Amino acid sequence: MSATNKKEIFINIQDVQKVSSIGKALSSPTRVEIINILMKSVMNISEIATKLSLPISSVAMHINLLRDAGIIQVNTIPGVRGSQKLCSLLVDFIHLDVFASLNNPEGGLKTYTYSMPIGNYFDFEINSPCGMASDKGFVGSGDTVYSFYDPDRTQAKILWFFSGWIEYRFPSFIFQDNRVESIKFSMELCSESPGYNILWPSDLIFELNSLRCATTTLPGDYGGRRGRLNPDWWPDRYTQYGDQYILTINESGTSINSQLISSVSLSDLRLEDKEYFSLRLAVYENEGNVGGVNIFGSSVGDYEHDIELEVVYRPRFS
Fold first, then answer.
1. What is the pLDDT of residues 125-137, one digit of tens each?
2. CATH 2.60.120 fits 105-315, yes or no
């Protein structure tokens, strides 16, 4: 996402975790200064440290908190000497609604969340190279499709494949008796190359209930520094971390990281028709950049979560 594709963050005061995350990020004068700096220009961490006359390690800590709160974005790009972390502002506005539940006579919007471990996929059809690992070691038979049938796949914290698709299924009970306003998937992803290669594009397709909703280009397979959560045993020469991707579907269409991608809306998906709804992540051969995908779980990479689903809905009352 470029610095011009910013978004608004809307926070309900009842969402304690999100309010706390934003509040923590804004509680430091230094972090507010960093936001002011990034309002004017995209900069790397070293440049920000120079402007603030602070050690790079201290600035990196502040940057991580701002990134985790969704206020800034950090991308790794090639530099004159190795790679550099380029920081950009991700938001225009942050809105805190204190009276959300009082302003709506039906009790306001509610949120249902579900965390899907990346090894709990329902089905797949993939091509090598492919494999997975837990926080303790590789799962199954190394870099082969056989690993995806291994019973220990449920312990996976990172999985990868070069082409094909993998499908996750979520229960749809929340759609039966409520008016759903939006659904949002959050996941950490990057492309899949031998070792790692930060310039390795791959076109990833998102399908919901077999309907193609959006396509995004994963710019690279990231390495060069360790992922914040990676276990000690994970080798430095392999993929280390990904970018955060947020897929949102509402009646206006489908967005990725707040950028409208397609006109596919909630009503198109007919999510209430079955006992489940499916999310399929696909890299199809002969369609654009075929560069695979890495999917990160809760203890590998930079973001401490699996595939997160958030459903925003309004209860129907009889």
1. 999 899 999 999 9
2. yes
Top CATH class, 7-97? mainly alpha
Q: Tens digits of per-residue pLDDT, 286-317?
A: 899 999 999 999 999 999 999 999 999 887 64
Which residue has 């899949």 as its token pair?
192
What string of DSSP letters covers 222-233?
B-SS--TT--TT
Distance between CA atoms of residues 291 and 288, nearest Å:
9
- Rounded-to-integer distance, Cα 104 and Cα 5, Å: 31
CA distances from 273 to 24, 89, 174, 177, 181 (A): 41, 40, 12, 12, 17
Query: What is the three-class DSSP state of 79?
Result: coil
Convert 58-78 into a string of H (helix), E (strand) and C (coil): HHHHHHHHHHHCCCEEEEEEE
Model's pTM, two decimal places?
0.69
**Residues carrying CATH 1.10.10.10, the chain:** 7-97
The residue whose two tokens read 């309002």 is 39
Residues of the chain with CATH 2.60.120: 105-315
